[in-house]
Every structure is written in structure tokens, then in C-alpha cells.
Amino acid sequence: MTTADIELSASPAARERGMVDGFEGYVTPTAEEYAEVLRTGMVVLDANVLLNLYRYTADARDDLLAVLTELSDRLWVPHQVLTEFWRNRDRVLRDPRDTAKTAQELQEIRGRAVRAVQTWVNRVSLTSERASEIIEQLSAGFDKVLLNVDKFKDPAATEAARDTNTDVVLRSLASILRGRVGEPLDEKDLAVALVEAQRRLDEKVPPGYMDRKKDNAEGAGDYLVWEQTLREAERRHSDVLFVTGDVKEDWWRTEGGERRGPRVELVDELRDRAGVRLFMARPGQLLSYAGVVLSVAVREDSVQDADRVDTFLSEPEPHLEYGGWSQEALTYLLNRLTNEAPQQAVVLVAAASQDGYVARSQVYEIAGYPEERSLRGFTRPFNRIVQIMRDQGTLPDEAVDLFWAVYNEDSPAFGVAAGFQIHDDVLPLFLSRIRDRESATAIAS
Question: In terms of DSSP bridges, do strands 42-45 and 75-76 run parallel, antiparallel, or are they unpaired?
Fold first, then answer.
């Protein structure tokens, strides 16, 4: 039996239950079922699908745009997806293929390599001429590699970030997605959705709980995409193919490290809300399916490039010393906070002095807030300044979130922060500052 045999719209009382009824999330869709949802279903694009168009080779980008053009009457994009696209577009365009990042890493490795050779030279007592020759050979090798890396820079991306009129990806998407974008939730529905998003974050209910360290607005992003998709599927009563490059566990059901399909909870929720079925695919899979089902020529290299980008973006970042932060970056943040949000600066320092955590009650006491004041948005100044630092290049994009709200069973009310936490990786930098200040005070006295 395939999932095509399941009559989702029929009530349990109207038919006999079988092996699959209520367990559709465990069943592998057939090629015919994928073909059917491509021809007649609602194809929903995640933000990373749109942003990855900047990361692909020209051929892969053109092939995916051709597929999206062919699917245009079935495409639908949640409003939250465009919110995330525009929020992250400039950051992606700064270095869409990580060329500058790779060059910087190579320069750092070159410096360490040269220092290692210099140390070795001193140990074996080489002549200065021979030592210089070895170091020059080492540097020449790095120069050659850096020159090749530099060839992959994309000047058009920099110009597209500066002037949207020159952005060919944006121009194509504007045409393809005209009339295919959902409305934002109204103020009342958004407030309800944000509460539900927080519940899911706290209770690890998919999707979105893997973003629990993000600030409230960004941490709710995945759930807002999902809720808007549920509403549109309910309105259309149409099966959904959700295309995403996100490989986190709060979207995919995995067995033995292999992604088998969407989370069972998501399949069940869409069936219960809209009476329809959920399919999921990564961009490379969409290209493969579309190349067979639709009248679009898709190059095998394009499928491989899409898969390569997915694999690269899904790889865990190597551990960064102090989570990617430095004393200089921390000083910059504290100075700006002191000038722009002094209460937050004082609370942050207080948290650092007590193992990185400050309780909700302490925040009110330290900041001098009245009891009736809400702490919603308390971390917003941190996030705003950190984003500025990332945009300026003074903080790596992959640096850990410094400070976030903590929600647990001790919270006095649902959706209320119990306290705020500094990331363990960054805490040693704070402690070092505290020790230095204590030493200076002791010397002065």
C-alpha cells in the first residue's frame, strides 16, 4: 500500500482503518506521488532555497530558476520566508561562496605555519639564509593557493548588494513569485503565534526548537513559516511539497543519520489541520524530480552543486575559541551597550560575575525596573549591536549567540523568561576582564 491509497479527507467512521492510517509520516512516498504533488500540489519554498541561488554556480542557479518558472502557478512563499530572505540577503551577498572567509582562514593558517617554521629553525640552528629560503617557499605556496581562491570572488554579488537593480536573481524571483507570496499574520494572530512558538521552543515541539538560542523574533521564524503554510494549505485543501535546505532535526525524521522524510509530528499536524499530505524535498531533490516530471532540462552538475551547497551549509562549524568572540569584540559590545542600553550592560556584567546566569528577579533589582514592566525584548539591544558587528566584519557570522533568555519550569508564568544566560564559551572572556579589574583595583589601593 502506498500513501496514495489513503483517503485523508474521509472520517475514521466512514471507512475501515488500515495499516497506514494515522501513521502516514512513516511511509515512503513513491516517485508517482512526488510527480503528482509537483503537478497539482502547493510547492512551498523556504528562505534558504531563495538565498542559496546566490551560492550556486551560474548553471545550477539558472536550472533552479527554470524549474521555479515552470512551477510558478503551484509555487507559494510564506510571508515569513521573504522576511528572512531580506533580513539575510546582504549578509549572503557579502561572501556568497565563502571566498573571503576562506582567504582569511588561509592567511591565519599561513601565519601559524610561518611561526612554527621559525620556532623549528631556532631549534635546529639553521643559517638565516636557509631559514629565509624555507619561509619564502612556504609563503609562495600560500600565495599561489590564495590567488586561485581569489578567482572565485563574485564582484556582481557586491554590486547587487549595493544596488538591487543590478541583481539578476532578485529580478528573476520578482517575476516568478509575483502573486505567489502570502500575507503576514495580523497583530492578534501574530501574538498568538509567538506564544505558541515559545511553547514549542520550550517543549521541543517541531518545527523551530533548534533555534531556541536565537532572540524571540528570529527564534520563532521556523514556526511562523510553518503556521502560515498550514493556513494556506487549509485554505486550498492542497497537498504540500515543502522545499528546504534546512537539515536540522526539528524538520526531518532521521534514522541512523539518514533523512527519511518530514517529522511525523509535522505530517500529522498538516493532516489534522488541512486534511492533506506533507512531502519534503531538498533543492537538489527538487531539481532531480522536476527534470523527470516537468519539461525542463536539468543538468546533473546542477543537482550536484545544489547538494554540495546543502552539505557545506549543514556541516557543523568547527569549534571557535571563545565561541568566535575576542576581548576587542566584547569591549566594543559593552561600550555600545553602556551608551545605548545601560541597564542591559549592567545586567550582563552581573550575570558574568555569577557564572553567566542572572535570574529574572535580579534583573528587576539591578535595572531598577518597576514590577509591572515586561522583559519582552530585553535582549533586543544585544542582538541589534551584535548584528551591526557582524555586518561590519568585526564579529564572525558563525560566532555564538552571547546572551539569551532562559525559559524553564521555574518560570512564574507561561512564556515568561526565568532569567538570562551568557554562553559558556564566551564566559571566560568576561571572567578575565573581571580578574584584570580586580587586580588593577588591588594595585591602586
Answer: parallel
